[in-house]
Give the backbone structure.
Amino acid sequence: MIYLQVAVPKTLFNLYTYKSDFPVPTGCRVNISFGRTSIIGVVMGTSESPPLDCPLEKLKPISGVIDEKPYWNDQTLELIKFIARYQHAGIGAIIDLAQPVALRKGAPATPRPVTAYRLADLSFTPANKQQQDLITALRNQPLTPQEIRGLNLSQSALTTLLRKGAAERIDLSTAERDIYADLTFTGKLTLNPEQQKALEAIRGSLDQFQVFLLEGVTGSGKTEVYMQAIEEVLRRRKQALVMIPEIGLTPQNIARFHHRFNVPMAAMHSALTDRERLDSYLGCRDGRIGILIGTRSSVFTPFTDLGIIIVDEEHDPSYKQQDTCRYNARDLAVYKGKLAGCPVILGSATPSLESLQNAASGRYRHLHLSSRACVNAGAVETEIIDLKGLELNSGICAHLLEEMKEELSKGNQVLVFLNRRGYASQVICSSCGHVLQCCNCDSYLTFHKYNGTLNCHHCEAVTPMPQTCPACGAQTLVIQGNGTEQVEEYLQQALPGYPTIRFDRDTMNSPGKLRDALEGVLNNHYRILIGTQILAKGHHFPNVTLIALLNIDGALFSNDFRATERLAQLYTQVAGRTGREEKSGRVVLQTYAPANIVLQTIVTDGYGIFAENCMAERRYLDLPPFSHQILLRIEGTDRERVHSSSHEIYQRLQKARESFPDVEISPPYQALMEKKQGKYHMLIMIQALNRTSLRKVLPAIDSFLEDRKNSGGTSCYIDVDPTEILQ
Ligand code: ADP
Ligand code: ZN
């Protein structure tokens, strides 16, 4: 009898033992019955001796085996175990995150057939030039129909070769194919001295683990450095993983990489179908893909022989998963690089303070690109408008409107940034003062005019806009606060004749829409761009000469110590969207706090000086990156129980702390939005200068978590290295 330790999705800490008459390798999926349901687990270990802590007659046999051979390689298993340890989570909680949905549902871990053509009769004499060209191309390796089209080879020549038996059809997914045969690199640029220096440094560590922080302003040529480093990696017949923060950026990046490299590439992000994601996953695992470009979850993709990992815009908050197991894909990428023994490049114009500190302490090597790569890049200047005493229309002052008008009349584009979607952020009764609130959350409802609804941006609840006040019945509801929808409406009417395009979650709900919109911006059809975060990331808008930030004051007065860092990153990133190519750009900030010292530093001295000041402050206050944090989130539908559980957890931690006095534990505090999605949320912050002692207090609450796991009452989630500390 063989005993299997099986990771079961959604369970807390344990692996569960099942028996089997025959060996099943580690890393294979098995069907098991768990409680009253039958589910899919993954074998994480096997042994021939029975477990000591469980009576043999209670052990259940597995009900079936899905994989004959492990579909995870050792590095992937190691990575999964690492996160489980690091996040103090169960492997069961992670296996669901770490594999494509199709595999979770039990799909076979085998690739779909891929049609390709290869040469069958080497002695065939071509009848014309087209046939000759096709034969030359096929002599190197089999080609798919898309590749044949891409190389401008003749379709009719192919038909003829097939008919005459000179070529044959094969299934590429199972065929031997050398993806590195015949590499070509199209459109390489000559690097400037700084780029050259960065590339040399990376090239010097291609066969070992080393993390580089590549800091360079937007447009300084980081991507060119990535691509030339990847070229070296491909020459060594190894694969590359390129991580980007936003799905919307994949088409752009893929197009750019496709243009440069002729290896098979794949994408990995949430807008793909289950099957497409599985194909990318298996293609990398089986060595049929040379470059994978993907968002956060691509860090879990197994590779045959990974040679480099790039994390672009490494500071971006979207690398941190914000529910279930709250891993940080950037940090995991570093560990993945360590397992693979390959370099990891973290690139950003505005590096996170964590990465800057790792560079300062010598753990990462710091590389700089200090100027824009294209010689004739324009300059950027900033204007701060003091809003005090000014009248605003949909959040825009008259002066800003004039400036926009002027740029538009010159044929340029303008971009308006506002991080709030919808039409109006509050609906108030002017008779009784009642503000319309979500019934699931402690939040105000946002009015969306295009469909006449009230929306909660925290639980996605949608209801029709009422005619009368639900509290007093008067027909006196008024709206307050503006969102992107209202700004667009106002600008359409104040600046007629200039087509607008809005980038937010309501309008850009598919990659196709985003692609079309970006195309419309690049060909100058749209003249006014209005949008949220989406606009701050990575896109190139050569014709935008004016960027307006409407409302940034919230970040200046937030209780979250990371708020100013995020504002500095946002401002610098947004400002980087302008002043590209030969046009010079202008950034206009509207604020009620023009003299704010942080704002002044960001605008006048730049991100580097801001980061230095911010770092000094964090050091003085013992905040991350100079200390380490773990945030416990206690949540449940019964407010009393959430509070009492929080206090019990706090007591246990306090007790454990007696042995580790350097650990600080905050008494439980309410989340900024205590009620969210129908649940109440309390937080406990655990902090220490030393990561090791920090982790040592956690086992004190394990038994508590285990006891409650099926109670249906409160649950407690552990967030190691939290990035949101008020929610
Ligand atoms: P980043 O990734 O830092 O934003 P990119 O690599 O996208 O910068 O480069 C910005 C622009 O400068 C691109 O249009 C790119 O083609 C150009 N560029 C990059 N490196 C060079 C170079 N060495 N010589 C000329 N142009 C360059
Ligand atoms: Zn809600």
